[in-house]
Structure formats: structure tokens, C-alpha cells
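[stage:ingest] chain + small molecule (pyridoxal-5'-phosphate)
[stage:ingest] validated
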Amino acid sequence: MNIKEEELLKWDADHLMHWVTPVGQNAGFIIEKAKGIKFYDTTGKEYIDGASQLVCVTLGYKYNDEIAAVAAEQLKKLPYMTNFWGFTHPAMIECGQRLARLTPEGLDHFCFTNGGSESTEISFQLARKYWKIKGTNKYKIISLYNSYHGVMYGAVTATGLFMGAMSSGFTPLVPGFIKAPSYYCYRCMLGLNYPECGIECAKQLEKIIQLEGPDNVAAFIVEPVHGTAGHMPPPPEYWPMVRDICTKYDVLLIADEVMSGFGRTGKAFAVEHWGVKPDMMTLAKGITSSYIPFGAVAMNDKVYDVFKGSFFAGATFSGHPVAAAVSSKVMEIYLRDKIFENAANIGKYAMERLKSQFLPLPCVGEVSGLGLMIGIEIVEDKANKKGFDPASGVMHTIQDKALENGLFVRVSDQSWTSSNRVSFCPPLVVTKEEVDKILDILYPIVAALKPS
Ligand code: PLP
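[stage:predict] done
[stage:export] C-alpha cells:
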């Protein structure tokens, strides 16, 4: 590293806040470009992106030129247009039409946002207002332990991950939010085993709705597959069961597809694995493959029709023409280049190798996931599923060693709940050869872990 880079890193540490990093620190390198599924730092070192960064660059960096051309054209033609007062523009309409064709049938009304947290937030406002307009008192929102829904006040209140660490220092949070048990079978909160459990976690939702009063419960928000917690899919019965419960008690079902949407699990949207239709879906990340910030809330007729004639405030950038144009192009590429099919096929290949090669290792407790959303559970003791002592810093050592070897992997380090997982979620354009390269780097790092 030369003096100039050292100076830049020092200025960065002194002036810029990095999320999920102690303030005043940075990673010690500067990323300047990306291509294919790799990014490169200023010293020329390359890193394979085994995590699609924040599980968001679905197309990796493979289509930079094609997307840049679309963004440039839109910038020249109509760089900005509000969608307030009913103003509209071709880029937003086309994006909506493409979304309507991609989302599950019936979910074909949208409002646009600037990202996942805002989508979550808006979905809560829509849910509460929906019931208000219908003349009821339903306002409570149920979410799951282990879930992640974002950083804004409602989203962070609904988030069930990190035992409150996410919101420490800026409480009180938003009233009217309730948590239900997670569907994370390997560490069942109810102490049960699948399938003898009869999917008690789903049944608990019904009990909670009854206890809280069906006349008070507005919505249930749930990730189709736990994301930030480390990629744990629910048992196959879970989604159909919670759909039935929500229908029975007139509770709006919100699928948070911010991470799992746009092909991540091998289907356009993860709810399609179970043939379930939510009332609303929150979207972001893959909606533009993260080429530009954007998001949306999708809703069905039942929800949309209630709002006809109602008034909502919105954000300046909602429906931004450049983001909308990029989103349309990204959706075109998904279909044109069969990206979701690739995620399903390559995900199957990766899962086979992970199960046959990684799972037998002494410190791997389970491997689970859907498509290219896979988690590898790291344990100190396989027999009793004990995790490593947080002080050991094992999860960060795995991440650091991978980086040293030119691989970026995401780890979910919740050492205090013994739930430590390495995420395997490369861009959906990944090839078999690239999967092998990633796993060849990761294997000796995980194999070197010593049980107690
Ligand atoms: N919902 C889910 C399921 C997520 O995974 C995330 C981010 O990881 C969010 C919401 C928040 O999205 P954003 O970071 O774009 O605000």
C-alpha cells in the first residue's frame, strides 16, 4: 500500500461512519472496481464475491456496460420527475408493468421506495391504514424472532435478530409490535423436532393472534427464508399454514422478499416455492441488482382497492426515472439470460458439494438453504449444537482468512445465541467453476476449526 492509500484510509476512518463497524475504523483496503463476480482493491488484489455483498448484487458486476448505457440514456432524456400530484413517466410505468409480469399473479399494484427498510416501513403504514379505512381497530404487527426487516423505526422494531443490539441507544421503539417464534428448525425455539413438532411455530402464530385479539392484529410480516440471520428456510408446511391462519383471522400477510426476491432462491420470488400468495411483498436489492438504490411494495387488489381515493405522503426519490429504467433492464436480463434458472441449477450443485464435503466436518452443524441462499452452521460441538465462545472471534476469523485468500464471505455472528453461520450466496450469474473456486478457498478454513 502506498502513502496516498494510507492517507485516504486515515481520512476515511477519521470522517466517515461505516455501518456494522466500530466508528473510527475501516477494513484497511479501498475497493475501486468490480467485474464479473469479482471486486478489486487499489493494490490490484482481487476478491471473489461469495456473498453478493449484502446479498444484493444478483447479477454481480457482469452487466456494468449494458446497465450504464440505460442509466446514461435516461439521465439525458428525463433525469428526474416526481411522482407527486399524479405526475408519471414512461420509465416508472414500464417498470411497474415488468414487475407485474414477474411477481406472483394478483400482486400487481406497486408503490416505489428507495430500498428495503423503506419498503418495510411503508408496508406497515399501508397495513395500519388499510384497517383504519375499513373502520376497524387493527394495528398490531407480528414478526418473527431471528428476522431482519431493516433499520428504520418500524423495521427495526419488527426485527427479531441480534437481541435488541440493533436498536440499543435509540429506544423507545414503536408500540404495537409483537414477536412470534422463528421457524429455524436446527435451533427450534420451542425445543421441538421436525416433523414430529407438527410445525408448532406456525401454530403459535394462531395462538398469538388469539391472545392479542384478532380485532387488534393488522399484519404478519415474515421473510420467506431467514436472511441476515444466516439463510434458514422454513419447513415446507410453514408458509401454507401461516397463509391459512392469516386468512382465517383477517390478518394481512406481508412477505419480506427484499433479500429472497428476484431469483435468489431459484424462483422469481421465494413464496413461489410453496404456491402461497401474500397480500403484500416488500422488494429492494435485486430489483435493480443494486446497480442503483430502489425498492417497491407490491400489493394485491384487496389491499389496493381499499386505498382508492386515499391520500399518501411520499419520498422525493420514489419512482426515480433512472432507478426505474435500470430496474426494467435488470428484469429484462433476468428473463433473457435465464438468471433464475441458473440460480436453481447452480444452487443445487453447490448444495450437493456442501452436504457431501462440508457437512461431515467436525465443526459444521448443518447446511441448509434454497437456491443460492445457503447457510453453513458453525458449531464447536456437533452433538449438543454448542456454538463457539463469542470471545474466540471464530466467525470473524473465518471472514478474515477468506479475505486474505481473495474471497469475500458473509458471516452471521450471533455468538450469544450460538447461531453462527457462513453464508454462501454468490451472484446468481455464478458458474460451476466459480462455485468450486469459492468452496476450494472456504473448505480448508472451515476444516481447520477444532471442536472442543
Ligand atoms: N428486509 C430484509 C429481508 C432484508 O434482508 C433487508 C436488508 O438486508 C432489509 C429488509 C432492509 O433493506 P435495506 O438494507 O435496503 O434498507
